[in-house]
Amino acid sequence: EALLEQAVLLAVPLVAASLLLYWPFYLGFSSQAGGLLPNLITPTRGAHLWVMFGPLFVPLFTWLGWRWRRDGLSADEVRRGLGWMLAGTGTLVLLAVLLTLALRLNTDLTGSLLVMQGYAPDEMGAFVRDALARRWAHLGGALTLFLLGWLAASRLMALPRRGRVEGFVAALVLLGVALTLTPEFIYLRDQFGTRMNTVFKFYYQAWLLWSLAAAFGAAALWERLTGWRQRAWQLGLMAVLLVGLAYPLLAYPARTNNFRAPGGWTLDASAFLARENPDEGLALAWLRQAPVGVVAEAVGSSYSRYARVSMATGLPTVLGWPGHELQWRGDAMPQEGRLGDVKTLYETRDWETARAIIQRYNIRYVYVGPLERMTYVLDETKFRRFARTYDFGSVVIYEVQP
């Protein structure tokens, strides 16, 4: 009770202060998340889970098992830990089932969910059968998480007689289990329609929690084991860490051209723009020194050269990557009409139409480079009313006079 009281006394003012400090952000915040959806057919395979978290699982399981064997846990503590895990997992399963039943009342949503999983809208029966079969075939991930959670929960049950430090570490482990177990059954609905983003966000937080707990467990075992057990643990831990480092050891040479930088060593992530197109490199350097203003540039798909002007200069633009704008804002309404307006600005021959767009978005600079000429059927005659403040090589920048 005393620990619970201390936790409440810390958590309540901390949450209140966090909400207050972030209130200006919350006022204009919008999210693509649109409720919860059940995850029935996409369990995390045990092999995949161990590939991701193996270097953390080994010290966590070893430490929890060692503490159980050394100090012992009463039958009551083990039963209570098991009860907590069964209750938590059962709640997630029940929520997934209830969400599935609720979906049956929304034909359109049920159909779209099935189609995204590769089934026809009327194949709910086949979907459920395949989901159960797939769950059974890939039970390793859920069993790993359940066992880890059971060990941590049982350790928490022994908190009054085992000390707060190890209880706190066990709580970190259990919270990480909750984060990774949740996407096994439910996920946040977003524009992708899969659990990808939920797994990404939740697993990242679980990694941080388990990293702290694993570091504690590894250090405790390193110091407290004796004799051959200590040497075995030290060698085993080093082997696990080496396996975990296999990716960076192989990835760094692959991603850095074997540490041979084609353009020389630099911390400037935008240097490739100047290297691949010197004209644009000079133009972007000029814009970085120019007065701040909205820049118009070509708009196109994500993960491409589009939005390179605003990215490399920090100047605001009319529209960046439309897909990412939708993700960040949760709604297409804030960018409604912008894609077409930019296209019209570059292509129209009518001055009044172009002027209306420039005034609507308070555009100061109109950037005309190779990408703009490739993307649009460009008509530059209307821009000649403005100052041609930059003109070199393949890039022209027009500045709207106030």
Question: How would you summarize this macromolecular structure in one to three sentences?
Answer:
β5 and β6 (395-399) form a beta hairpin.
Overall description:
With 402 residues, the chain is α+β, with helices and mostly antiparallel strands. 65% of the residues lie in helices and 6% in strands. It contains 19 helices and six strands. The strands form two sheets. The protein has a four-stranded mixed sheet with strand order 3-4-6-5, with helices on both faces. Strands 1-2 form a two-stranded antiparallel sheet. Strand 5 and strand 6 (395-399) form a beta hairpin. Helix 4 crosses helix 7. The longest helix has 29 residues, at 75-103.
What does the oligomeric state look like here?
single chain
**Helix amount:** 55-70%
Could you tell me the mean pLDDT?
A: 87
- Principal-axis shape equals elongated
Taking all Cα atoms into account, the compactness measure Rg is: 28 Å
What's the total helix number? 19
How do the SSEs run, as a string of H and E? HHEHHHHHHHEHHHHHEHHHHEHEE
Percentage beta strand: 5-15%
The N- to C-terminal Cα distance equals 67 Å
Low-confidence stretches: none
Total beta-strand segments: 6
Alpha-beta content class? alpha+beta
Largest sheet: 4 strands, mixed
Strands of the widest sheet, in order across it, are 3-4-6-5
Give the topology:
Elements: H1 2-21, H2 23-28, E1 36-38, H3 46-71, H4 75-103, H5 107-116, H6 124-137, H7 140-157, H8 159-162, H9 164-181, E2 186-188, H10 196-224, H11 227-244, H12 246-255, H13 271-276, H14 278-289, E3 294-296, H15 308-313, H16 322-329, H17 338-347, H18 351-360, E4 363-368, H19 370-375, E5 387-392, E6 395-399
Parallel strand pairs: 3-4
Antiparallel strand pairs: 1-2, 4-6, 5-6
